[in-house]
Amino acid sequence: MRMSRLFSRTLRQAPTGADSKGYEYLLRAGFIKQLGAGIFSALPLGFRSLKKIEQIIREEMDRIGGQEISMPVVNPADIWKQTGRFYSIDKELSRFKDRVGRDMVLAMTHEEAVTALAAQEIDSYRQLPSLVYQVQTKWRDDPRPRAGLIRVREFTMKDSYSFDADHEGLVKQYERHYEAYFKIFGRCGLSVIAVGSDSGMMGGSVAHEYMYLSPIGEDTIIICDKCGYTANRQIAAFEKELFPEEMLPLEKVETPNTPTIKALAEYLSIPERKTAKAVFLMGTFTGEDQQEYQKLIIAVIRGDLEVEEAKLQKAVRAKELRGAADDEIRACSMEPGYGSPIGARDCIVVADDSVVGSQNLTAGANEPGYHLMNTNYGRDYEGITADIAAAQEGSACSVCGMPMRSSRGVEVGNIFQLGTRYSESLDCYFQDVEGKRKPVVMGSYGIGVGRLLACLTEEYHDGKGLKLPITVAPYQVHLVSLVKQGDEPEEIYKQLCDAGIEVLYDDRKDSPGVKFTDAELIGLPIQIVIGKRTLQEDAVELSLRGDGEKKLVPLSEITSVVQEHIRKLTEEITDSMVVESLPPSSP
RNA sequence: CGGGCUGUAGCGCAGGGGCUAGCGCGCUUGGUUCGGGACCAAGAAGUCGGCAGUUCAAAUCUGCCCAGCCCGACCA
User: Fold this and answer.
1) Looking at this predicted complex, what is its ipTM?
2) Domain membership of residue A314 as a residue range
């Protein structure tokens, strides 16, 4: 491609709002352009990178037996009603009516569509196992898009769906994906870790997320360096130290101006672990009649711990949680800042293991300025008991007991064992060897293509611009011509193209400085400079992005030398690839 | 959805009741230059986010709306 003809251009200054370096360079190098909040166009350079990522994904999906298909972005709402997600998902799912008034949705994922499709195609065990995938646009009306391509509303996703006759089959396909994903990310040059995750709105039991560890990530990952346990904090287990004691009688004490655990512990001179904290949330539930209703939830946890809302939401099976307002708390006979489940009414009490296993905790008296000492679960109040505590930096690993660390991560892929939830509700059944009708056992597997590119640009840049790995860079070679006369540049360009090498050829009439700066900004892995000086020696200058080392290459050897570099650079990526297998004891 | 900030030329910004709305970069034309964001000259380009109001007069003041960004809520 000639740069004089390139549709996009580079920007000297980043548009405002480009807060991360990766995003800034994507914009400045002319890879992407924003159209609206969380809505982006891919320009030629960005589009080429995205295509390369997709190609890698296709190859690895094909390798594990995937067959590519394409499913519609617009779905009739019926199938979403049948699985219940039309009702259970909030505004993130965009709905509209067609001209006849039929309910339609913009697919945010394709479990419904693929299950409806499989229901028509699959009727015998002989057709199983099966695996289909697509690279398709998704729309999710995220309440707050941000961070460039990391969190957008419209995006491209590779989603695959496995169909099996039984759970063992599903596990096999799941394992294959588990490894294939490491190959995909590895070939792109991104190191990720797989962590156990919450299955969220997908339902199902086992799920993993692939995390690119970075401070810009919005997920918190808990990692045990000792034994290798990793999990999203939303489900991360940890060992809680309990403090069992003989129960003592309740005692009401005056505790002015102590609405927080910290203030209370200081006022009474007791450690925070001797207190019970009440966290009030309003949960949205769907009743048996499909009607939504709200109910206050009081989560009780030991004062030295924090509530993990995802765990809590799971424990109470709420569709949604939000912080409760003060008057909503008072409506249930409790007092914000001095609250406890003792004396509460019309609400759901959830007690963390920590308050079940530790006695004589100081909790609110539901009266401003007063607390109760020696409250005890079971004697003074009851409710659902569960682990609803958030693991933190330093929490003890539930497997080996060592202190764990926490890290931020970006979720670039996920895999779910769905089971039969979708096949049952959409009537996707097959006949087994014995002629018995059974629901197909399904798995669902996603990779965010744009998000992956965003992570790659976060990982691969320096002060001057991008330096994407050769496997995903839009072109392999940046050919910079500094000479105004002679046919050499055109000949070299043609020669490289004819050899099947991907070349971005800077044939513009700009000054050398402009060309060098743009070459660094776009950051293609191999850079070739043709100058008067080099031509006098019948050579060009070749350098690799990042190492700054320049060497002269004779004109006659350019193609072979470039091919050798491409081979080596590609090899370096594949050599450093680490493919892990699904740990046998995984959740 | 709550809180905050910002909308003026392609990008980055200045101007903040008064007469033809500016600057840098970019763009166009001509010339010079030619290995690290060159120089000279001449140009093109903005209904100042929208609507309404106040005023003799609004980019400027007020209200409403829209859009984008940041924090939070939220989120496969």
Assistant:
1) 0.91
2) 251-386
